[in-house]
From TrEMBL:
Keywords: Ribonucleoprotein, Ribosomal protein
Membership in a protein family: Belongs to the bacterial ribosomal protein bL19 family.
Annotated source species: Pseudooceanicola atlanticus
Name of the molecule in the record: Large ribosomal subunit protein bL19
Pfam family, one: Ribosomal_L19
InterPro entries to which the protein is assigned, alphabetical: Ribosomal_bL19, Ribosomal_bL19_CS, Ribosomal_bL19_sf, Translation_prot_SH3-like_sf
GO biological process: translation
């Protein structure tokens, strides 16, 4: 393992976050810490993951799209942000591409994503 990957792995282990296995097309719920004045609370943001960038590394991020009051809203979350309380996979989507930017121009039934019925979790290095 080269030096950069080793340092990145150490930083990820130090954070101690458990990131679920999700990809573009999955509907996910992100518990995001919101600070209002002096108080802090967790606000859930649920929508379809339309892209993942920079893989599982420390610089990784993902974009979640939801429809709020008839208007499409997208938000980019850093994968290992300290403001993310939790990431939960609500349902698995069956898609054939990695970036679902075409959903931006779709409305209604054409924007639906089929659900995966035979999902098998991906094996990580520790399990294999």
């Amino acid at each position: 393992m080269d030096l950069i990957a080793q340092l990145e792995a150490e930083q990820i282990a130090e954070l101690g976050k458990e990131i679920p296995d999700f990809k573009a097309g999955d509907t996910i719920r992100v518990g995001y810490k919101v600070t209002e004045g002096t108080r802090s609370r967790v606000q859930n943001y649920e929508g379809v993951c339309i892209s993942r960038k920079n893989g599982d590394g420390i610089a990784g991020s993902f974009t979640v799209r939801k429809i709020s009051f008839g208007e499409g809203v997208e938000r980019v979350f850093p994968l290992y942000s300290t403001n993310i309380e939790s990431i939960t996979v609500v349902r698995r989507g069956k898609v054939r591409r990695a970036k679902l930017y075409y959903l931006r121009s779709r409305r209604g039934k054409s924007a639906r994503i089929a659900e995966v019925s035979n999902y098998k979790p991906k094996k990580t290095g520790a399990e294999a």
